[in-house]
Amino acid sequence: MNKIRITDKMMKNFDYHTPTRLVFGRGVVEKLPEVMKPLGKRVLLTYGGGSIRRIGLYSRVKELMRDFELFELGGIEPNPKYAGSVLDGVRLCKKERIDSILAVGGGSVLDCSKAIAAGAKYDGETWDLIVGRAPTKAALPIVDIMTLAATGSEYDCGGVISRTETNDKVAYVSPFLFPVCSFLDPTYTFSVNSRHTAAGVADAVNHVMEQFFTEPSNSVSDGFCAALVKTLMKYAPVAIAQPENYEARAEIMYACTFGCNGILGLGTGGSVWPMHAIEHALSAYYDISHGEGLAIITPHWMRHVLCERTLPRFVSFGINALGISPDFPAREIADRAIAEMAAFFKKIGAPMSLREVGIDGSRLGEMARRIAAGGCLDAPGLFAPLGERDILAILRAAL
Ligand code: NZQ
Ligand code: ZN
């Protein structure tokens, strides 16, 4: 038998498991009691600053959950904070012997709930779990009702927690953090204003790009990525112009859900998500919106890493995801791809510079140092390794 030579350029092995049940569409929340029943009677309902009350979801959830003992943790803030919501939630879960968590809101509410779910099952300091100083061995079961299409937290096992006093924003990942079930009713996103709709789409587009710009890739992954980018770019302006357009909200919600759970990167060379590493520092220091930070950084990262070696992926992205004609010379396709991404973010009203979101140049050096020290952005073999000087150059260009 001929020996098969597997090279680094070929599709990588993978082992993929996403245990979350997705229930999608108008009115699906009616199934909530059926899903919650096996998870226990004592439920912690978590939510944000009031949007779920304004859209009538809070009262509907209370009605549907009338046979359960409900405890509440409201007021979870965007970029959820460890010292506030996370610790309050952990204390509440332990004191009230909570069986499960029902998170209703955007990615911040769900991420916070994931950290609470793990902290509730741990006797030490929850922060040790978040930063990986202690292994996560269990978590309370989580069910969510998403009201904002963006992060994909509803279909992944990660959460991002901020610690303002130390300028930390840490991505916390564990297989125990997959939601048991996510309810995705696009009508709950009708009330999301244009600013957060744009930020959510910018986040999801960037999730796709983080996974697309890698080597090797494969035709299936590239196809998934192109489909998601096209969908998000087509429907974002529609949802902004017509917030109650069901088709647009549904397409965006579906696309966002698949952005972050790893399916787009199966068999590829993988990525360390460099734009996310940079943005997380921006929101750790300045508490800005994650999606807006990404909209600002993305074109500058693209410009910075474009070179002869990375050019073929830019060409593939330009042709397959953005529909640029293959008849142009390769370098022109790449330049057009960068210009199109910047134009798209501008068109949907996202900020285009750090100054627009209140960030001046005074702490760029400190942030670049911190980002370089914190990640493995310059590890050998990466698609486009970034050292401290590269990171600083990207931040300066984005100013
Ligand atoms: O607090 P409320 O009143 O609910 O208002 C929120 C908030 O002000 C509002 N909102 C949510 N649903 C709404 C609504 N307003 C009107 N109608 C509705 N139906 O939107 C604002 C932003 O909400 P937030 O949850 O902060 O936004 P998003 O979903 O974009 O989450 C951002 C957080 O997720 C992290 C980000 O870093 C950031 O902390 N991420 C989480 C990821 C994950 N778990 O996989 C991956 C991402 O890359 C990201 O890092
Ligand atoms: Zn993101």
Notes on the protein architecture:
The protein has 399 residues and is α/β, with parallel strands linked by helices. The protein is built from 15 helices and 8 strands. The strands form 2 sheets. A 6-stranded parallel β-sheet has the order 1-8-5-4-2-3. Strands 6-7 form a two-stranded antiparallel sheet. Helix 11 (290-305) packs across helix 15 (388-398). The model has no long low-confidence stretch (mean pLDDT 97). Bound molecules: 5,6-dihydroxy-NADP and zinc ion. The site of 5,6-dihydroxy-NADP has 34 residues, from helix 5, strand 6, helix 7 and helix 11.
Determine the N-to-C terminus distance. Answer: 59 Å
Per the principal axes of the C-alpha atoms, what is the gross shape? globular
The number of E-state strands comes to: 8
The stretches of 5 or more residues where confidence is low (pLDDT under 50) are none
Evaluate the radius of gyration.
21 Å
Which structural category do the helix and sheet elements fall into? alpha/beta
* Mean pLDDT across all amino acids: 97
Main sheet makeup: 6 strands, parallel
Helix content: 40-55%
Arrangement of strands in the largest sheet = 1-8-5-4-2-3
The H-and-E topology, N to C, reads as EHEHHEHEHHEEEEHHHHHHHHH
Hetero groups bound? 5,6-dihydroxy-NADP, zinc ion
Q: Note the beta-strand portion.
A: 5-15%
Number of DSSP helical runs: 15
List the helices and strands and how they pair.
Blueprint: E1 21-24, H1 32-36, E2 42-47, H2 51-54, H3 57-64, E3 69-73, H4 82-95, E4 100-105, H5 107-119, H6 126-130, E5 142-146, E6 158-163, E7 168-173, E8 181-184, H7 194-212, H8 219-241, H9 246-257, H10 274-286, H11 290-305, H12 311-321, H13 330-347, H14 364-374, H15 388-398
Parallel strand pairs: 1-8, 2-3, 2-4, 4-5, 5-8
Antiparallel strand pairs: 6-7
The structure holds 5,6-dihydroxy-NADP and zinc ion.
Residues 48-51, 55, 78-79, 105-109, 111, 147-148, 150-153, 156, 158-160, 188-189, 191-192, 196, 200, 203, 260, 276, 290-291 line the site of 5,6-dihydroxy-NADP.
